[in-house]
């Protein structure tokens, strides 16, 4: 009941300012795993058959029409607000946006319409915004049961305001730890998509130079205190200084502290992009090609101090007004080039032209090694076998390719398995589900090894595939997979390449190495064992968790891993597909090579 | 001024008499001006300037005009225009608050930008040529880029969806055209008094363009005389509709703001245009009928109409007319002078509220879908509150129905799939045959012509909402088809929704005066409303890409040819022999290399004297130069070859 009163109050407030107000009901249930939904766009409003009126959210939205505008474009302001147990900080964000909105209702310079969406954040920040956007862009004209729920009649009242030019999500949370008010910018949307860099630059410039906010973006805090990074930073600083004394034009040296900050931010930026999960409600806008960012403001005073509130309102609203004005005055769209970048600080970035080089250098070794291994393998085969079938020189790779293909098929099946596990009736805990998944996958793996001849690493047949050819085909497959992934989500491909490329390059059969007892080969075998252990996805997950400060062991790890994967597919992250269809098969193939009986 | 006017009048009378004698026509050219003011429910004021210029039918040869603008009559004669309307609009008409069912809104609520339609009196084969010539002529006349309508991709030939049934009709609109004083000045030039005298003197540019809505319209139609040897007469109607926000000091939000002509426009009317036959100011008040008795004969009753508890007017109206939904006060401005300017004011005393009559269905249009590949256009029709009260319902087969025409032009890069047309009535999907009475589709041809959709819907009277959606693919444009402007996206012009069975007119209870404005209001006009302009983001190439491509291609060419030539020119045997002979004496090679390296690092030139002769260097340089020139020329030729293939 309290929620209804609040919603009505906000609606009344908006309409008194001269805005067009409407309410939108939405169903909190949203994302469901469907194996084929990874690359499809935002699906149209699929109506559930059994809509219950027990739980539904209501968004309140108001539109200010630009007095002399043509109504072709609009700018969206979003403030998530929990209508039932919203705290003081959430109320502050409403206050800032409300102040701004009442100003915008009176100004004459608007050329784009302004939409203010108060999203019902009882069901999370993302879902209400996504529901509103779905209704905005792909409404269902059919009858819906949801509309009949409650006394609030929302049918046919939904209003639109043209193509969205940009969207800003404002949140106020927590007290700032620093002396200044802090502004955090979140930009990563699903699958590592970023909004246009210009939007971040505008906000950063206005916040730093006009309103005196301390602006930050997410960073991996544990990296800041790591000593090895510090040492590298110091080396860089020293080299930079030396270069500067040699030639005053060379100014690439940066202080160690900056280097540490930059690396921590870069790592966080790379990680959030690689994960493919949006870092806030702005992610919903990216699905519709709208540039959006989330601004989280932390005031330096407690929320109930009235004297400071005024100043805070003024500065927050001024920042938003400046940003809106910048977008409003822009006749064209943001330039199309600045979507591919990694942030190293709010004002610095690494563009695609630079970061592609690192990846290209990493991956470029793969085809060369594959070619050389193939030639070696062919020679070895020619020497060992003298049967007439050896005439088919060019078909040497076929056996190995069969194995590679079989394991990739296995990877695909493992990727799709969770969908069927979710269909198993009854309530299961995540750890139970992960056990189910693990057992089915391993039994499937055994079946694969048993049914396909020459596939198993444990078969003792000497005339199986030559390991060099197998490795060559594996490397080719890894190369193709990584290159494809780099187009879909670069950050995933980059991190994946860091793991997969050394593993693929270093792996060699362990038996000859043990037999030879030479230090070099023993070291190689040891390295490949370590890399393969790290490369196992579950292990990787545990290590990354450890890096972020949470240690996990035993069964809870399985449960956590399951929940993590669940979140990946719920957000349609291509990283999940990458793990299942590129990383896992290549890892298994490397395992096969390691235990190859040659 | 007054004396000047007085001395002019006999002269004018004499002149018009002479004209009448000279040409033997029955009636002379007439000009009349009028201004209609109307307070709007959302605390704004509408001002509608109306100028009418009539040229009677006369002999087709040797035509001279006295009041009628020569430019227009030449236009009509040259291009054989039967009827034409041109409008320049800025801002959006608010159908909810400013009305949608009166003649004023159905005639003056226009789409953003420029809209032009014309009916020609030429053989069918020449219509397109006439249209093209007309757009160019108008473009020059009004300082606007109307000539963009010349291209066959931007206009269409509606058959019945537009309201005028003619196969010689052409329609086009430019949503992106910005409207400014540049367009108003030539429009004013067509008036006999320009903006120097009469009502048009009120048009103070800053106040006119400060408004929320601004639409200047020019409508001309030819009147056939019906007699042999006589040409056709022309009626030129020029209107300017502005919606202004009066400045108010009152803090009370539900109180209507008081205003006067001088506070709205910053100017006052001093006398009428001497050339005008009639010049009147009208004040229309809607929704105040309840408290009046039938007879207004007595002086007190009449007085009460304009000075009562709710509001009072600063001037006494000359006449008061009643129509079905409100009052119309008529003022004659002939009496005003320099010393006593006409400054009508309306002063509200009590808060008052009323609502405008709305069209039976309110239309809104939006784009659906995401991504740069495909999408859908949806038109949503919602029933308004006043729908039940409106006349014009029809009974077909015992059912009460509302008819709605939809006319929409699609630019060719919006490739519409007409088979995906879906119609929902009250959230139920209907088959085409149930609601669609007539449909006319002309598909677009890539880069040649735009597509057009005309639909007649027949909806039940109790309809709450209706939705139409149609899917499309976004086209790819060739690089030179992108406009040189900032890339904002591409526009889909407004759709026109009209209601063929609903007609708007003002129904006066008293007999009419001869005012052209009132007679045009009394005529039944089709109720129509335009939807929003839509912006479609198309895939836009990065136009700096060719530059990057040229750079990278040249680099690769240079590397390839450089290494190739190097390999070809080298004589390895000679070099080896040379090296062998040198091996004995060479000592300081490493040292020299180091010296060079340090110099390079420090960014200073080498001080060591160069042993090479300048002549050798220059010849080397020239070969290098020639090589470079050849390379660039080759790249340019390749670029030219690839960019011009079509």
TrEMBL record, chain A:
Keywords: Membrane, Transmembrane, Transmembrane helix. It comes from the Eukaryota. The chain crosses the membrane at residues 352-375, 404-422, 434-453, 473-501, 522-543, 575-595. InterPro entries: Gaa1. Coiled coil: none annotated. The keyword Transmembrane applies. This is Glycosylphosphatidylinositol anchor attachment 1 protein isoform X3.
UniProtKB/TrEMBL annotation, chain B:
Keywords: Membrane, Signal, Transmembrane, Transmembrane helix. This is GPI transamidase component PIG-T isoform X1. The keyword Transmembrane helix applies. InterPro entries: PIG-T (IPR007245). Residues 1-24 form the signal peptide. The chain crosses the membrane at residues 547-568, 625-642. It holds the Pfam family Gpi16. It comes from Camelina sativa. The keyword Cytoplasm does not apply. It comes from the Eukaryota.
